[in-house]
Amino acid sequence: xxxxxxxxxxxxxxxxxxxxxxxxxxxxxxxxxxxxxxxxxxxxxxxxxxxxxxxxxxxxxxxxxxxxxxxxxxxxxxxxxxxxxxxxxxxxxxxxxxxxxxxxxxxxxxxxxxxxxxxxxxxxxxxxxxxxxxxxxxxxxxxxxxxxxxxxxxxxxxxxxxxxxxxxxxxxxxxxxxxxxxxxxxxxxxxxxxxxxxxxxxxxxxxxxxxxxxxxxxxxxxxxxxxxxxxxxxxxxxxxxxxxxxxxxxxxxxxxxxxxxxxxxxxxxxxxxxxxxxxxxxxxxxxxxxxxxxxxxxxxxxxxxxxxxxxxxxxxxxxxxxxxxxxxxxxxxxxxxxxxxxxxxxxxxxxxxxxx
Length: 356
Hints:
This protein is α/β, with parallel strands linked by helices. The protein folds into 2 domains: 4-272, Rossmann fold; 282-355, no CATH class. The protein contains 16 helices and 11 strands. The strands form 2 sheets. It has a 9-stranded mixed sheet, with helices on both faces. Helix 1 runs parallel beside helix 4. 42% of the residues are buried.
């Protein structure tokens, strides 16, 4: 067994006309969307750049001038992609990146032309910013969040200028955006969507699940979760999911580099493990006990406290100095809102006990 890098070593020389597009290919392209190819992929609709060239140009930049990536493991992935004919010859285009803290919006996407007349639209997951984290929480009480509307618009605009079949995909929130964007797309665009790939992506709320677009696409949605999934079981799914083995434990299995691969496919398991089922019951029971107004208050209050200082990312917010600042800010917070937060956390503890 191996991981994404092993897959590229094993099959990176096989072009798509010899080995058809696979779920592992979808995860690789979804992971690629986390790279900030600032200035390296042209924004003009009619211009493209080979994936191998964009990756090599990114790696050639001094670290201080590179756009951000999700983690350091993305750098070996880029090196492997430049040496893999299967991917290096594919063209990149249509980068989109919209980050608006005032609107609690974090959205990014990238299109990969697969060389057979079809395209893969890759949607970026949460990027570690507090804004991205907040928008994730908004999924629990809003019918549609801004990033989902951005995804639908991205699909609409690309489909208007591209005549071929479409594949959509993303990891984490990116998977949710792929499914939600497809569900909100026009009938003409949906007719050209061949498949939607969600890799440990949260589900949808009742509003989107009831949309004709989701119901029409349900058999074309392919959901994959690791054996100890938490993120991928959030909210609701009506499409079946495939369980993938991982060499990590617990929440660390959300890392796509931990997913196990053998030959052309993931190592598949029968079901998620007992810990994942326990966490799923706990979180669903907890959310079921909160009204939408309470969920919004909890998300807004925690976001305001954590972003009250200089922190812009979740990692920064958890640093001692910023946590101390959040505690000081809580002294000025509305007591009713703080009571809602503490009450919801108590409900979470109770849901955990009931799920045992």
